[in-house]
Design goal:
Its main location: cytoplasm. The chain is of the alpha+beta class and 373 residues long. Helices cover 31% and strands 25% of the residues. It has 2 domains: 135 residues, PurM-like, N-terminal domain (60s Ribosomal Protein L30, Chain: A), CATH 3.30.1330; 194 residues, PurM-like C-terminal domain (Phosphoribosyl-aminoimidazole Synthetase, Chain A, domain 2, Alpha-Beta Complex). Strand 1 and strand 2 form a beta hairpin.
Length: 373
C-alpha cells in the first residue's frame, strides 16, 4: 500500500542525524585526551578496542566491571542549563565502585538518551565525562547518544556508563582481609555527590526554595551547591593502595544506603564496626537540608553521605601514613571508628545495628554519638 500526502522523514519524526554528527565533532578534542596507551582505534568505531596484552603482566588477572547513572541529579543540571559537571558525577559513580575491590579502572563507555540532540549540550556532557576519565586515568573508548523524541522532552536527557578494570587475584581487597582492631578511616566528600536527589528535590520544593536562591551557609546559590560534582577518588585510592607503609584491607564507596550500610558490605560477618559521629561535622548542605525538611536523622543518614564519600578499613599502624598520602592529594581524612569482634561486642543500647546491605551478608555497623554542634 502506498501512502499519500506529506512525506515523512526521520527528521520530521524528531531525529536530527546532522546534529548528532555535529555533537561528535564538538566532543572529539575532549575524548582524545581521555585515553591510555592500550587504546586501539579512534572515536567513531562500532566498538571501543583495548589492547588486552597489557594483562599478561598479571599472574591471575581478575576483571572488575561496574555500571551506573547519576539519578535525578540530571534534573538540577537541566533546570540550570549547565551540563559540564554531570559527567564527573557519572565517572565517579562508575569507576570508584571498581576501585573498591582494589582494581585499576581501565576503560569506560557512556550512553546519553535525550529528547533532542543539542550539539553543544551533548558536547558539554561528554566533555565532563572525558575530563573526569582523564583525572581518573581511565580511557573513554566509546559511547552512544540516542535521540528519543516523544519519549523525552526536548530538554530532557539521562546518562549512564560502564567501566572495566583489573586487579591481581592476590591483591583483591574485601572482607576477608579485615581484622579486629582495624580502624575505619573516612575520606571527605565534595558534597552530596550523586545520591539522594529525589529527597533533596522534594525538600527544596516543599520549602519553596528556588535554585538561584543565595544561601549564606553555602556561600553560593542553592543550585551551585546542588550541582557540585562528585569527587572522583579512583587515582587517589590507587595511590593509597600502592603506597609504602599503608596496608588497605577494604574500601567502601558511600553511595545509596549511606555510610553504615555501605561499610557493612565490606566487613566479614564476624565483626562490628563502631562509627562515632562526634569525629566529624557534616558540611552545611547536609544540616541545612535536614532542618529544612525536618528529615529524621536515621532517614537522612540512609540517604546522603553526610560528608563521608569513601571509607578505608586498615590497621591502626597504617592510619598516619594513609592520611598523609591522601592529604598530599588534597583529600582530608580522619578516623571515625574501629572494628571489634561481634561476639561479646559492647553495643550501645537502643541504637540500631546495620547488618549487611544490598543482598550482601556482611558485617555489622553501629553509628553512635552526635555530631559536634
Amino acid at each position: 500500500m502506498s501512502g499519500q500526502g506529506e512525506q515523512i522523514t526521520y527528521a520530521a519524526a524528531g531525529v536530527d542525524v546532522e546534529a548528532g554528527d555535529r555533537a561528535v565533532e564538538l566532543m572529539k578534542a575532549d575524548v582524545r585526551r581521555a585515553t591510555r596507551p592500550e587504546v586501539l582505534g579512534g572515536l567513531g568505531g562500532f566498538a571501543g578496542m583495548f589492547d588486552a596484552s597489557a594483562l599478561t603482566r598479571f599472574r591471575r588477572p581478575v576483571l572488575a566491571s561496574s555500571t551506573d547513572g547519576v539519578g535525578t541529579k540530571v534534573a538540577i543540571a537541566q533546570a540550570l542549563d549547565r551540563h559540564d559537571t554531570i559527567g564527573f558525577d557519572l565517572v565517579g559513580m562508575v569507576v570508584d565502585d571498581i576501585v573498591v575491590c582494589g582494581a585499576e579502572p581501565l576503560f569506560m563507555t557512556d550512553y546519553i538518551a535525550c529528547g533532542k540532540v543539542v550539539p553543544e549540550r551533548i558536547a558539554a556532557i561528554v566533555g565532563g565525562i572525558a575530563r573526569a576519565c582523564q583525572q581518573a586515568g581511565v580511557a573513554l573508548v566509546g559511547g552512544e547518544t540516542a535521540e528519543h523524541p516523544g519519549l523525552l522532552g526536548p530538554d530532557e536527557y539521562d546518562v549512564a556508563g560502564a567501566a572495566t578494570g583489573v586487579v591481581e587475584y592476590a591483591d583483591v581487597l574485601g572482607p576477608g582481609r579485615v581484622a579486629v582492631g582495624d580502624v575505619v578511616l573516612a575520606l571527605e566528600s565534595s558534597g552530596l555527590h550523586s545520591n539522594g536527589y529525589s529527597l533533596v528535590r522534594r525538600i527544596v520544593s516543599a520549602a519553596g526554595w528556588e535554585l538561584d536562591r543565595d544561601v549564606p551557609e553555602f556561600g553560593r546559590t542553592l543550585g551551585e551547591e546542588l550541582l557540585t560534582p562528585t569527587r572522583v577518588y579512583a587515582a587517589d585510592l590507587l595511590a593509597l593502595i600502592r603506597a609504602d607503609g599503608v596496608d588497605v584491607h577494604s574500601l567502601s564507596h558511600v553511595t545509596g544506603g549511606g555510610l553504615a550500610a555501605n561499610l557493612a558490605r565490606v566487613l566479614p560477618d564476624t565483626v562490628l564496626a563502631r562509627v562515632d559521629r562526634s569525629t566529624w561535622t557534616p558540611p552545611p548542605v547536609f544540616t541545612t537540608l535536614q532542618q529544612l525538611g525536618n528529615v529524621p536523622r536515621d532517614d537522612i543518614e540512609r540517604t546522603l553521605n553526610m560528608g563521608v564519600g569513601f571509607v578505608a578499613v586498615l590497621p591502626a599502624d597504617s592510619v598516619d601514613s594513609a592520611s598523609a598520602v591522601l592529604a598530599e592529594r588534597g583529600i582530608r581524612s580522619w578516623a571515625i571508628g574501629e572494628v571489634q569482634s561481634l561476639e561479646g561486642a559492647s553495643l550501645a543500647p537502643g541504637v540500631e545495628v546495620v547488618r549487611g546491605a544490598k543482598g550482601v551478608d556482611g558485617g555489622s555497623v553501629q553509628v553512635v554519638g552526635d555530631h559536634p554542634a
